Each structure stands twice: as structure tokens, then as C-alpha cells.
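Input record (one chain):
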Amino acid sequence: MRQRLDKWILGFTRRMRLRGKIVVLYVMILLLPTLVLSSGAVYWVIRSFHQSYTNTAEEAVQQTAQVVDFSKKSYDLLAVRTATDGELIARLGREYADMTEVVDTVNYVDRTFLITSKYLPGIADFRIYHTNETLVQDGQLLWRPEARKLSGMDERSWYDEAKKSQNPLFWSSVPGNPNQSVITRKIIDNTGNLLGMVYILLNYDAVFGELLDHPFNGGSLYIVDDAHRILAATDRSEIGKRLQLKAWDAGSLTGTAGAAATGTGTSVASNAASSAEDEKKGSVVDLSDTKEMLLTQPLSSHWTLVALMRTKHLDNQNRMILILIVSIVTFFLLLSMSLMTTIVRNIVRRIRKLGMRMGDLSRGEFEASVRYSQNDELGDLENRFNSMSERLGRLVEDITKAGLAEKEQAFKALQAQINPHFIYNSLGLLRWRAMDADDGEQIQIIDALTTFYRITLNNRISSIRIRDELEHVKAYLDICQFRYPGRVKVEWDIDEGALDFYTVKTVLQPIVENCYLHGAITRKPGAVIRIAVAREAGNMIRMSVYDSGQGIPAHVLAAIGQGTHVGKGGGFGTPNIKERLALYFGSGAALTIDSEPGAWTLVSVVFPACSAEPMIRREA
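The corresponding structure, as predicted from the sequence alone:
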């Protein structure tokens, strides 16, 4: 399938020039996919924005419903506690024959419930109505239903309507006054007889105003009871009307299953009858055919919070997003077309110029070159062409320079090299003269020098056996003993099993030399140099040099460990030893220095035990 597709594409574009192929490639790979993807992006962005808006609205409605529910329960609890007070029920159901008892009851009610009525904010009036003919009304908390005006109707009409309610507690609006709401709670004794009513007049602003007056994005909020009667709304002129939604039947009641029995007291039959009457009077808020977003949130007491969200803002946002995305896509398509045209023209021009220079090169003009200033693939090709045209001259020049450099290095190495035979012959001559003079001490010095230089001047080897390294160190120490007779005691602790393993040449001698040069060991009474060689666990060799000289200061020791110290005479020689150990043994070798200023110094060299001569490592 892939081969067929490649064959079809190559056949389709075979007769096209490079410019046409790039244009086709641009249309098929960039232009068409961009149009398709931008359309999908517009759809998904609008959908995501709409979903985000919906989620935000649902969260806001849910939070508002929780606040309303909590507020309602607080006022309901106040009414229920008052109406179910056992002492109040007992006093309202008693027959009074003595004025003293009447006064005592009035004092009890005032003393107990006058403070209770101040528990919650927004309570404009708090009354306890009763029908006990033997009990007076004091005009403060105790009242009898009479012909006085109360909540838009006379007290007796209100009291009779409340008696008909199926629920003991219900909320209602005040006709003609949207700024107030009423809570009514029946007072019933243990036998089910109605003794009176608790009447609580609420200030609408204190209870619902802050929550419902300013919903976000200019929407509307409604709190409706189970008869779909509006108890509170953003537009207060709609309070008391019936709310009509498509999802609600005209005679149905909404509510939460299992809710507390504290709702409105309107019956189902009366709701159905009043529905038709409300429609005739025009007291219905009909949202059945609205195009706006509707959200409903049931409360725990047969109430429902209905939110009408204006989608005009959302539509404007969608329109702005659509215009913005289309504008951006159009701008970048036009920009890409302009850039594509410029790039294609530049590529074609450079390819033609490169072809002309290749023709010059084919005619033997090796100095032909192409000027390039761009770091792209064509720039690389032009750069390679320039390199190819100059390669022959550069190769000849490089070979000549390399030959001259090699001869110069060989000459410098020859100049720096000391002829060992001349030194050996000179030492041999001095030894014969010492023998003629029968000078044994001078003969020992000459033998030590011969042994020392035999290893030092042998440039053909870089690694030797440990026994040869110790012989070299011993020759150096013999010379120093003749130079400083009796000042330094030399101790040896040698593991014979480690002598046949290999080490790097001239490792211990610089360390021992530092004992004399930097340790000032010859100036310390009872000076000791201890040289130890031992084979350790893990197939490792440890060679150490201990001296009781003046030690190394802490800051100098730290600088040596970091490789930043440069002392007199090239320092302690540790960088050179470390480099040569790493060159032959890699990371398996280490050089450590421990010292106590004014007391001692211990230098240890650890490296792998090699029975074969080590070679230089490539990774070093």
C-alpha cells in the first residue's frame, strides 16, 4: 500500500517543476488540514466555553440554593420551637378564671419569646395568635384573630386560611407588598386540637434580597413552593405569581422525596383549580417557551430554586471567539502563503546558482565557490561545495604542515634527550678512579647513582615491576644518606608477594624526594621515613611513604586535593603521578595524602595488581 501511494505521488508530481511540487505540498499538508482543524477547533472551543459557562452557572445556583435552604431552615426552626414549646401549649389550652394567672401567662410569653424573636435578622413582626376566650391579648406577642389588617388581609381571613392548610408550617408572600414574607406555624396540642398560630413577618431584603437581587450575567432567580408559587424573585413584581415551566404539569407538585413536612399548605386539588384562575388573571410567569438557559435546584423543604440565565452574553462570547479564530487562521494562512512564495523563489534561485558553480568545477576551476549566508540544508550543500572545491589545496597544505611539525617535534625530542651511554661511561670512569684510590664510600655513591639513572634515563619503558621501583627508591635514599649521614632512619615494610606485580615507573621516588625538599625531615631529631608495600583485598596494591617531617598545613592539603596548589619547584609532584596512574590504571588507581602539621605526612598510592605489563588506556 505504501509503495503504491509513493508511486502514485511521484507519478503525479513527476512533470512538475520544484515550485509546483512545493505548492502542492503546501496545499495538501498545510492549507487543507489547517482549514479542517480550525473548524474543529472553533467547534470544540465554543463547546468547551459553553460547558464551562454551564458548570459555573450550575455551581453558582447550587451554592445559592444551599444558602437559601440554610436560611429557610433557620427561620423554620425558630417558628417550630415556638409552636412546640410545651409550656406555651399548656398555657394556651388552659381555662383562666383568675386575672393573676392571665398576667402570669402574659409575663411568661413576653419573657420567653420576646428575646426569641430577636435571634435572627430580618424579623419585622413576631406574634402568637390564640382563640382562648379566657386569655387576653396584650398587643405585644399575644393576639386574637379579629378584623384588623394583617399581611394584606384581615386577621380572621388569614387565620381561617391557615387552618385549612394541610401542613403545620408554610411560607407566603404579602399581597401588594413584595418587600415582606410571612411564616405561619400552627400551635397544636397533644390531642391534635388547634390552639393558635405563630406569625412571623420577615423583611424580604434581609432574607432573600442579597441572594436574589443581583444574579450573575443579568439573569433571574426564582424561589417557588410545591405549588409553583413564587415566594421570592429577582423581579419582585413577580412574587406571588405562579411559575410555569415546560417540565411541570399544570396540576403536579414538585419537591424532594423524603423532605421535611415544612412546605406550603396548599393542596393538590386547590393548586389545579387555582392554576386556571391564575392564567385568566395573568398572574402566571410563563417560561415554557424561553430560549434562555434554565437551571432548577430542589431544596430540602419542597421548594425549588429556578435560575434563568441570559444566553445573550454567551452568544456574544461565541461570536467573538468565532470571529477571532477565523481572523487568526486567515491572517496566518495569508502570511504562510507569502512566506512560502518567498522561500520557494529563494530556493530555486540558489539551486540554479549552485548548478552553475558545479559546471565551473567540472571544467577544473577548483577555486570556484558559492557565497552562502543561511544555515539551512542548501547552506550546508553550498558550504560542502566550497569545501570540496578547495579540498585539494588544503590537503596539500595540511600534509606539508604536518611533515614540518613532525620533524620539528622529533628535533625537540632529540635535543631534550640525554644520552644514557655518555653518563654511564662517565660514572664507570669515576668508579675506576675511586677503586684506584681505594675510596669505598665514593664507590657506593657511584653505584647508587648508576642504579638511579639506569631507570630514570630509560625512556623506552613506562612501567616496571615493583621490585625495580623499590631498587630505584633505595638508590635515591642511599645517595641522600651519604648527603645527610645519620639524620634520617629508613624503615622498610615490604610484602614479598607483591614485588613481581607492575607499577608505573618513578612513582615512589618523587614522594620520597618531597620528604627531604618539603618535609624538612633532615632538620627534625629522630626523623623516620617508612616505606611500605602490601597486597590488599580486592586484588589491589598499596604503596605508602610515611615521614615524621614538618607535615602539610590544612589549607595546602585541601588545595592539593582539589588540584589547585602550585608550590615551589612544581609542587609536590602529585598531579603528574595522578595523571600517569590514571593513564595506565584508569579510575582503579588513587593517590591520597594525610598529614598532621608539625608531626607527620602519609602518602598512599593504590592501584590494581597487574601481573602483566599495563598498557595506556584509550579512555584516559
